[in-house]
Amino acid sequence: MVVRTTLRGTPYTRLLTLSIFANVVFSIWFLFGSRCETNSVAKTQSTSSNSPFFSFASPKNPPKPKWSPSLFKTCCPQNQSVEMNAEYPSFSFCLHPRGKDYAVSDSVYKASGSSEGLFETPIRKQMLQVLERHGDHNAVVLDIGANIGLHAMFLANAGYKVHVFEPLKKNYDLLACSATSSARLYNNVVVNPYGLGKEVGKSCIVTDHDNFGAAKIKNGQTCTPEYTVEVRRLDEYLTKSKIQPTLIKIDTEGYEFKALITAKEIFKKNPPPHIFTEFVPRHFKDPAVNEDPEDYLQFFYDLGYKIQWRDVKEVKKGDANYKDLLNTDMNDLYMYR
């Protein structure tokens, strides 16, 4: 006779069954749940890197918040903004207080939302025209010495990607604020709170008390932290950002040559088709700048540019127009190829 012993129903078997079931559930979660989590992280990384408003968080590069109308309302002081309601889509400028910046900010106040009558309107219209003729709706623009963004905002509102460089904090804060006034500007304006020069480092910046567009970087001087600015190199910026500008606008009160010269080798391979520059010979000769204005013009001749000045389509080196240009105080030049 065979005696069969069964443990069915005893506390031991129930405990053993529960243990096996728990192990099976954990194994299934480990195999599939962790895989889903990994895929979710990968998807988040991909979305973050491609989004115009988000990037990976890090101590040095926090993510850019999503645009909302409240951003501009938060950053712009009361009674210091003007809506450009004649533009489509409309946007707003955050400005210096009335009477504190007669050239740029006051011209915006007086225009009351119109683009006509603003500071340097003819130059801005010409830049927009050459970009339109160029035909690249994804064109990249550099605005070096951007002031409060008077040119940059119109160019960005037209749909172009504009990288701005402005070292003076009083100007930069307003510029960065204006760039939050619409979703289009927020997406198209890349703000850089530093100047460009031959060497990376710190320098001083000085400005007129009622014209913040006349700010000048001056080497070899001491200044308070408020007027101590960072200077970087254009060649390094172009290499790191991997951009090829279609148009450059530069107005740095005599620092133009120092700002562009580092990118000469890059421009030999990929010259920007259009460059708009202020040219004031006495600014180059300032002891704190110490550059020869003719070297700046030669920089463009070496790269194969033609120089347009006023109604002169091509200023040739050594001709009568060239000599007049060097002896004229305030000039706006258009370099083209």
Automatic annotation (TrEMBL):
It comes from the Eukaryota. GO terms for biological process: methylation. Keywords: Membrane, Methyltransferase, Transferase, Transmembrane, Transmembrane helix. The chain crosses the membrane at residues 12-32. One of its GO terms (molecular function) is methyltransferase activity. InterPro entries: FkbM_mtfrase, SAM-dependent_MTase, SAM-dependent_MTases_sf. Residues 143-307 form the Methyltransferase FkbM domain. Gene3D superfamilies: Vaccinia Virus protein VP39. Pfam families: Methyltransf_21. SUPFAM superfamilies: S-adenosyl-L-methionine-dependent methyltransferases. This is Methyltransferase FkbM. It comes from Rhizoclosmatium globosum.
